[in-house]
Amino acid sequence: MKRAIELAKKGIGYTNPNPIVGCVVVKNDKIIAEGYHKKIGGFHAERNALTNCKEDTTGAELYVTLEPCCHYGKTPPCTEIIIEKKIKKVYVGSIDPNKLVEGKGVKILKEHGIEVKCGILKDECDKLNEVFFHYITNKTPYVVMKYAMTMDGKIACENGDSKWVTGKDARETVQKMRKQYMGIMVGINTVLEDNPMLNCRIEENVDPIRVICDSNLRIPFESNIVNTANKIQTIVVCTNEADTDKQKYLEECGVEVVRQKRKGRVNLSELMKTLGEKGIDSILLEGGGTLNAQALKENIVNKICCFIAPKIVGGADAKSPIEGKGVEKMMEAYNIENMEIQKLGNDIMLTGYLKRG
Ligand code: AOF
Ligand code: ZN
Fold it and tell me: Looking at ligand 1, which residue's alpha carbon is closest to its atom 2?
C-alpha cells in the first residue's frame, strides 16, 4: 500500500476534480503490475495496473488506495476488470464517499468471491484525497488559506514591500500548491498592490484558474491578470454596483465575470457554490488580509498553511495575514487542529485544519 500511495501522488495536479489513486498487483510476494490515475477522464488506477500487466493475474492480490468503483462513468467499472482478471484478494485504503460507489464496490467484489480487506493505511490514503472527499460530498471547493509571515506576524513592511518574506524552498512549495489546487483566489487589493500573475512557475500548462474578488471591478486593464486572461482562465467576481461597460471590456479580454446579485462585498459562501458548479474542486486562498478575514468569517476555509520566516520587520501599520475586525474574545478564536510542522530551508511551514462547530 505504501508503494500504491507513492504511485497515487504522481497524479497530483492532473486528476482534479477526480481523486488521485494508486494500485499495485502482487503475486507470489512479487509486484507484477503497477498503475495510477494519470489524468482526469483517463483510465482509473486499477485498470491501468491490470491492463499493463504482462503476467497471469489469476490468484493475485491487488492493493488500491481508494475503493474500486462499480459504475460506468468516463470509463467502465474497475470492479469488472478485477473480477475478469481473477484477482483473489483486494486490499483497500479509503472507502470512496462518492454516492455511486460508497461501499458498493467492496460489496460487488465480495459477492464475486473476492476477499476484501479495507482500511489499510487508511489515514495516509484519506489524506491523499482530502480535496476529493470534500468536493464530492459538499460540491464546493476545498479551501486552503496560505500565507507567509515574519516572526512578528507581518506579511509586508509598513510601506507594502513584501518581496520576499520566505526563502526559495518555501516559495517552491507554494508553486507546487499552485499545481495541486485547481483555483487560486485573491482580493482586488493584492492585484492593485502587487500586480501578480498567480500562475505556476514550475511547470507549463498547470496554472490554477485565477479568481479575483473585486466587488466594484477596480481591476486595471493593464494588469498582468487581464493581460494574460486569454491564456490563463480568469474569473473576476463583482457585485451589482460594478460598471457594466467595464464588465464587457473585461469579457472581451477573456475574463469571465461573475456578477453577484447583491450590493457591497462579494459573498464568499455563494461564490464557493458558483465555483463548485463550475467543477472547481479546490482553491488556494492567497489573501490578502481583508479577504482572509472574510473567508474565516464566512466559514469557507478548510485548511491553513502558514509559512513563518525567521525575520522581524516591525511597524504598527505593517499588514498581517488576517485583517478585518477580528474576534472580540480569545474564547471566540478560530481553532486549528491536527497541526503539523515542517522545516523548509530556514523557514517553517505550519499546516492545520479549521476546527468546525
Ligand atoms: C478516478 N480514478 O483511479 C478511481 C476513481 O469520472 P470517472 O468516470 O472517471 O469516475 C470518477 C469516479 O470514480 C470518482 O469520483 C471516484 O468515485 C471513482 N474512482 N476515479 O478518477 C481512479 N479509482
Ligand atoms: Zn474505477
Answer: 44
